[in-house]
Amino acid sequence: MRYKLPAEVQHLVHARNELRRRYTAFGLKFTPDGNLVGDLGEAIAAELFDLKLAGRRGLKGVDAYTKEPTPRSVQIKASGRGESLIFTHTDAPADLLIGLVLRYDDEEVEVVYNGPYDLRLFGFDALWQGQRAQRINRFRKWNANVPPEHRLTSTFQPLP
Known about the structure:
By secondary structure, this protein is an alpha+beta fold. It contains three helices and eight strands; from the N terminus they run E-H-H-E-E-E-E-E-E-E-H.
């Protein structure tokens, strides 16, 4: 599902798009990445799914919690390039995973995965260490098989 980015993020993305147009001859991409993409992903997911952000850095594997009577932990992964999501090993993965692709040119966000955090489904065994990437197209495929009752409900209206 795709949603329009919040106005404040649209301003940031619009400025990035203007820089790309102005300096097109140089071939520069002006791709926001690193902490900015992660922070944008967390903020957008918190709004889209009415989540309470964990609020502290360093809590590996958990970025937010649902506001249900029995809160579930959520890991949020975002990509600005739309190629893959990067995971860092944790001994205590979240209950749920939200995977986002920030579509800068369209000023939209695509939810590529909304469902249970399942190490085996994602191709990770219990012994892996460090960081691993998984292609976005796989998340879209896995997302298509998540039953509605295992998804978080968005508070926003999706785009057509």
